[in-house]
Design the sequence.
């Protein structure tokens, strides 16, 4: 944004809404220039055009700002995976969810499965399920990670080991045949590993781009995984490899 854009945003932020004629006087520029500026700011998601003027758009929550771009990647597939994963959950069960955009889609699909007990270290899950009637939610805290909007470290990992849940939904940075689920860093692997150890059944939810993707830290070995839910975008060779693994493979169309 240039200096005029910044001033325009500040004016709308202060007033909430303003007419173009008033903005022209405030900025000391032409009506055509103000209209072009408002068009650019609307495309950036900062303002909304109205008849004869514009209004300031309140910035979305931290959850939305951080996750929106990530969730747009493979969005439709992640939503189908989330819906299929939720079918494994019966009302009255206890569920754990790691951070991640795919587990966020699982959380959204779980809204209709209450009553539930939910344990998580992820802010998006809290935002999705915290106010749902019939959901008893436990948040495991630690050091906040603004990149994934979750809480990391040994404290939340230790806390997860004090719970015992029916099913844990684990996101994945990488799923490698014969080796298991990997996270992008060792600190990101601690919590999902503890969550897996504290559940009767561990379900990995990941879109097909996570197959053999780059991963640094081993989170869960194949023998600890009960099920993998993935979209059907895998090539035949990759699908054949995963079908030989010790866990159940569910591919959603």
Sequence:
């Amino acid at each position: 944004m240039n200096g005029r854009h910044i001033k325009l945003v500040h004016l709308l932020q202060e007033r909430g809404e303003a007419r173009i004629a008033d903005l022209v006087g405030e900025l000391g520029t032409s009506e055509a220039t103000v209209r072009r500026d408002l068009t650019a700011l609307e495309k950036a998601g900062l303002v909304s055009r109205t008849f004869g003027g514009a209004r300031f758009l309140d910035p979305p929550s931290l959850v939305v700002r951080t996750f929106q771009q990530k969730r747009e990647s493979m969005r439709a597939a992640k939503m189908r995976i989330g819906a299929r994963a939720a079918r494994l959950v019966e009302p009255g069960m206890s569920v754990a969810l790691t951070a991640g955009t795919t587990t966020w889609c699982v959380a959204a699909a779980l809204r209709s499965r209450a009553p539930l007990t939910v344990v998580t270290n992820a802010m998006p899950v809290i935002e999705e399920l915290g106010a749902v009637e019939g959901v008893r939610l436990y948040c495991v805290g630690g050091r906040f990670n603004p990149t994934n909007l979750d809480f990391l470290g040994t404290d939340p990992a230790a806390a997860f080991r004090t719970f015992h849940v029916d099913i844990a939904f684990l996101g994945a940075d990488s799923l490698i045949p014969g080796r298991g689920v990997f996270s992008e860093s060792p600190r990101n692997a601690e919590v999902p590993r503890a969550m897996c150890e504290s559940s009767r059944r561990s379900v990995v939810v990941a879109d097909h781009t996570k197959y053999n993707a780059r991963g640094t830290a081993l989170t869960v070995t194949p023998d600890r995984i009960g099920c993998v839910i993935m979209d059907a975008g895998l090539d035949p060779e990759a699908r054949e490899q995963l079908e030989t693994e010790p866990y159940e493979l569910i591919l959603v169309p």
User: Anything to note?
Assistant: Residues 2 and 122 are 36 Å apart (CA to CA). The chain has a mean pLDDT of 86.
